[in-house]
Amino acid sequence: MHDERRCRELLEALSGYVDGSASQAVCQEIQNHLKDCPDCTVVVNTLRKTISLYHRKEAPGSLPDEVRDRLFRALNLDDLIPGPTHKA
Question: Which DSSP string corresponds to the chain?
Answer without folding.
Answer: ---HHHHHHHHHTHHHHHHT-S-HHHHHHHHHHHHH-HHHHHHHHHHHHHHHHHH----TT-S-HHHHHHHHHHTT-GGG--STT---
